[in-house]
Specification:
The chain is mainly α. The protein has 3 domains: 124 residues, Fumarase C, Chain B, domain 1 (Orthogonal Bundle), CATH 1.10.275; 248 residues, Fumarase C, Chain A, domain 2; 65 residues, Ribonucleotide Reductase Protein R1, domain 1, CATH 1.10.40. The protein contains 21 helices and 8 strands. A two-stranded antiparallel sheet has the order 1-2. The longest helix has 37 residues. The two termini are 50 Å apart. The relative contact order is 0.10. The N terminus is likely disordered.
Length: 477
């Protein structure tokens, strides 16, 4: 039996019949009780309970606006907001009873009705659950976006700290998982900081389009009541008011954008994890992952597995899947609100919590990694990794790059066939490939010389990497 089957059985066992008259929409229906299977199937409280805080805050702002507009009295407003504050306190303590309600809006409404029944009759004046849930979701997303951006920044700080710690240490750089050119390990780490910054910027950019108040849009057509949309917007801290009521209640672009940004972050964390997994295995062997982030084998005593990194890599699939599911959910929906949209919260919350946990875990892990410097230098004894340096040496002597590339390629091929290194070749042997090859060739077969020779902005030159590290330290203060 699955998780949802278990919840269904428990809820069905305790279900005593849902009184239709207690529902916000019950007046239209003759029957007194709701089929328990329908109640269970349509209920969203298991996931939208996370919106309870935002629903209380939104309702408080709405009721205060109703007072200003003359639809509730001062005493009625105090009654309602007092009950809302009580319920909000219970929500924050985790003691609010939500499970017996079909959604978070009904849970809030029911609590206030039990506390102040007469005043509560006016609480829902001039609003629809269609706009209410969008308001709740936008408030949730704003907080979640700020939380994710903060976690990204913390991880960036940890990576910059590691880059500073390991500055000057050289590792082989890879393309196609083959030795390519020597690079500073700190240069690789700073690459992670740059891509995480794009992730942070994507979330920040999406935040601007999320920061919109929809209250006052009604079910889809607005309201015939004289309501102050600007008051609610300001009270809830939104930057602006939506322009079209139909779009307001059906728009979920802000959720899709956020989940896309989270998907990219998850993909980036997966790539970082893959690097660290590879570099820590014996075949690479120059990175050590702390035991706090590893597990062993139930059979093989020697094993030390970077399981956390494997799970970060694997759970990218969950977030990508959530984005795909959300886009499929939205595709082809007619305007305005449709109940299909109830399902969006599951994909959003799952993505937020997954990526937030990954960012937090990676921050701790990065702070514990150790570089096995001698092992890294051992990999750099493969002198073919300096082939590009030799080709550029020939270019500086006036040889066209295509010819330089071909010449060094012939040298490498000869060495491969003979099973020797480039430094094993004598000057006369080198000159057999080109008169431009001289004794200077040998000094370029060195990792320190290789990285120091780099001159372009953004390269692995130690001075430039140090400047990048210092620049990021200032940015991340």
């Amino acid at each position: 039996m699955g998780l949802h089957d278990t919840q269904y059985s428990i809820r069905n066992t305790n279900y005593q019949g849902e009184n239709m008259s207690s529902k916000l929409w019950g007046g239209r229906f003759e029957k007194k009780e709701m089929d328990p299977r329908v109640f269970d199937f349509t209920s969203s409280i298991d996931i939208d309970g996370i919106l309870a805080r935002y629903d209380c805050l939104g309702t408080k702002a709405h009721v205060e606006m109703l007072e200003k507009c003359g639809y509730v009295s001062s005493s009625e407003r105090k009654d309602i907001t007092g009950a809302l504050d009580e319920f909000l306190g219970m929500v924050e303590k985790g003691t609010a009873d939500l499970d017996k309600h079909e959604d978070v809006h009904s849970a809030v409404q029911s609590y206030v009705e039990n506390k102040v029944p007469e005043s509560a009759k006016k609480m829902h004046t001039g609003r629809s659950r269609n706009e209410q849930v969008v308001c709740d979701m936008r408030l949730y997303c704003k907080d979640a976006m700020k939380r994710v951006m903060g976690l990204i920044k913390e991880l960036q700080r940890a990576i910059v700290g590691a880059a500073d710690k390991f500055h000057g240490n050289i590792i082989p750089g890879y393309t196609h998982l083959n030795h390519a050119q020597p690079v500073l390990f700190s240069h690789l780490l700073m690459a992670y900081v740059e891509m995480l910054e794009r992730d942070r910027e994507r979330v920040d950019d999406a935040l601007g389009r999320t920061d919109v108040s929809v209250m006052g849009s009604g079910a889809l057509a607005g309201s015939a009541l004289d309501l102050r949309r600007d008051f609610v917007s300001d009270k809830l801290g939104f930057g602006k008011v939506s322009a079209n009521s139909i779009d307001s209640v059906s728009d979920r672009d802000f959720i899709a954008e956020f989940v896309f940004a989270l998907s990219m972050t998850a993909v980036h964390l997966s790539r970082v994890s893959e690097d660290m997994i590879l570099y820590s295995i014996p075949e690479f062997g120059f990175l050590d992952i702390h035991e706090d982030y590893c597990t062993g084998s139930s059979l093989m005593p020697q094993k030390k597995n970077a399981d956390v990194l494997e799970l970060v890599r694997g759970r990218a699939a969950l977030v990508i899947g959530a984005l795909n599911s959300l886009l499929v959910l939205l595709k082809g929906l007619p305007h305005a609100y449709n109940r299909d949209l109830q399902e969006d919260k599951r994909f959003l919350v799952q993505s937020v919590e997954t990526v937030a946990a990954e960012l937090d875990i990676m921050k701790g892990l990065v702070g514990t990694i150790e570089l096995k410097k001698e092992a890294a230098l051992g990999k750099l004894e493969d002198e073919f990794i300096y082939a590009t340096d030799l080709a550029e040496h020939l270019v500086r002597k006036g040889m066209p790059f295509k010819e330089a590339h071909w010449t060094v390629g012939r040298v490498v091929r000869h060495c491969v066939e003979k099973g020797i290194n480039i430094s094993d070749l004598s000057i006369s042997e080198l000159k057999g490939f080109s008169d431009a090859l001289d004794k200077d060739v040998y000094k370029y077969l060195n990792p320190e010389v290789s990285v120091k020779m780099k001159k372009t902005i953004g390269s692995t030159n130690p001075d430039l990497v140090k400047k990048e590290i210092e620049s990021w330290k200032r940015k991340l203060r």
